[in-house]
Specification:
Blueprint lengths: L5 E5 L7 H10 L9 H9 L9 E9 L5 E10 L10 H9 L7 E4 L12 E2 L2 H17 L4 E4 L4 H9 L3 E11 L12 H6 L3 H16 L2 E7 L5 H17 L8 H10 L4 E8 L2 E11 L4 E9 L6 H17 L3 E6 L10 E11 L2 H26 L9
Helix pairs in contact: 2-9, 7-10, 8-9
Length: 390
């Protein structure tokens, strides 16, 4: 424990006042809406995390000599690796094959949210670094097999690296306007399409034509314009998508209702209708300060060819262009997103393994993985869909 701070452990984000938590988030460079008290506490109140979910929250707070909260973060004690998007199943399997428990492990991440951004909230860098050291002390003292910090802000990634944690890089796909330095921004969706190679542009127009010819129209609903009925229909779509993949949804209707009520300025819902009847919906989270839009969830109750691409990529990109948003994050994985104008972006995580031999083995694996990923990312950049290299 750092001399100037006292460590406090709490069992929920909701145990700290929202004003205190959000003040720390506002003071921290690189935070996202997913670090808001409303988002994290809604996960707890609606049962998306907590008992019987494999995501047990533990809030670590540092108080200064005046008993003021100087830094805080929410950790999760995990009994599985679902909902993380940085995959360590092979690490867990290797532990089991050697008779060693991998779970529970300790995680610093936003549940079910592969979004890069600051996770260590604090009034200044000194407090945030002290928070990081306290996390590692908790991990060692509590005898967790490992500690994992996912989708870190670049500054945080450097701090973790300096303390000897193992860095890991993964790839996502983001749309940006302008797409690169020294290029002019697109004024509208047609200008964006015209910047793409002929085959990519033709494909997108064909897909949008398929949707229009099927009689589908879209409505973009923002903030308080999203009604309770809209949230209910969206949840139905979301649940249907999980059911079609034979899995259980992570989130629920109560959670979506909560963020709609408590974070309306951050919510953008696209509703697809045919013959006046809603058939699909996609949810985008907005950060009005940074002008970043985050594509999150979607679903449909009727199948229409190419509807997914329109609802999840083309409609949000067109909205971003119309409203001056410069980045649209398309979520985890998916090289098919490149054909829709999204570009590969590296994301960073950091890992600590308690067992020395496993730590060395995983360090060796990550070094080889990193080299292969760098080659792959270069290959992806050579396949960008634009008419000229951006």
């Amino acid at each position: 424990m750092d001399e100037d701070f006292r460590t406090e452990l709490l069992d929920a984000v909701g145990a700290l006042p929202a004003a205190q938590w959000d003040a720390l988030a506002q003071a921290t460079p690189g935070t996202t809406p997913f670090q808001r008290h409303a988002w994290l506490s809604a996960l707890e109140r609606t049962g998306c995390v907590g008992a019987n979910t494999g995501w047990q929250p533990v809030v670590l707070a540092l108080r200064d000599r005046s008993d003021q909260v100087a830094a805080a973060c929410v950790l999760y004690v995990k009994s599985h690796s679902y909902g993380e998007y940085v995959f360590d199943w092979a690490w867990a399997r290797a532990h089991a094959e050697h008779g060693l428990p991998y779970y529970p492990k300790l995680l610093l991440a936003v549940p079910f949210t592969p979004v890069g951004g600051a996770k260590l909230l604090g009034r200044d860098a000194t407090a945030r670094k002290a928070l990081l050291r306290s996390i590692l002390a908790v991990a060692e003292r509590s005898r967790f097999s490992s500690f994992h910090a996912l989708f870190l802000d670049p500054q945080e990634a450097q701090w973790f690296d300096a303390l000897g944690l193992l860095p890991r890089t993964t790839i996502q796909f983001h749309w940006r306007n302008p797409p690169a330095d020294n290029t002019a921004p697109w004024a509208d969706f047609d200008a964006f399409l015209c910047s793409l190679r002929h085959d990519k542009r033709k494909k997108i127009r064909q897909e949008q034509r398929q949707v229009r010819d099927a009689g589908v129209v879209f409505h973009a609903l923002q903030g308080t314009a999203i009604t309770a009925a809209d949230w209910a229909f969206f949840t139905r779509c979301y649940d249907t998508t999980y059911a079609l993949h034979g899995s259980s949804p992570y989130l629920n209707h109560a959670f979506f209702q909560a963020i709609g009520q408590e974070m309306p300025a951050n919510c953008l819902l696209f509703k697809a209708e045919r013959d006046g009847k809603p058939i699909a919906s996609s949810l985008v989270l907005l950060d009005p300060q940074t002008r970043v839009a985050y594509g999150r969830y979607w679903g449909a109750v009727e199948h229409v060819p190419a509807l997914h691409f329109d609802a999840c990529y083309y409609q949000p990109i067109a909205w971003c262009l119309e409203h001056g948003y410069t980045t649209f994050e398309g979520g985890a994985q998916g090289e098919h997103k490149m054909a829709r104008g999204l570009q590969p972006v590296a994301t960073q995580s950091a890992h600590w393994l308690a067992h020395p031999q496993f730590a060395r083995a995983i360090e060796d694996y990550l070094e080889r993985e990193s080299a292969a990923l760098a080659d792959h990312q270069q290959h992806l950049r050579e396949r960008l869909p634009f008419r000229e290299a951006q």
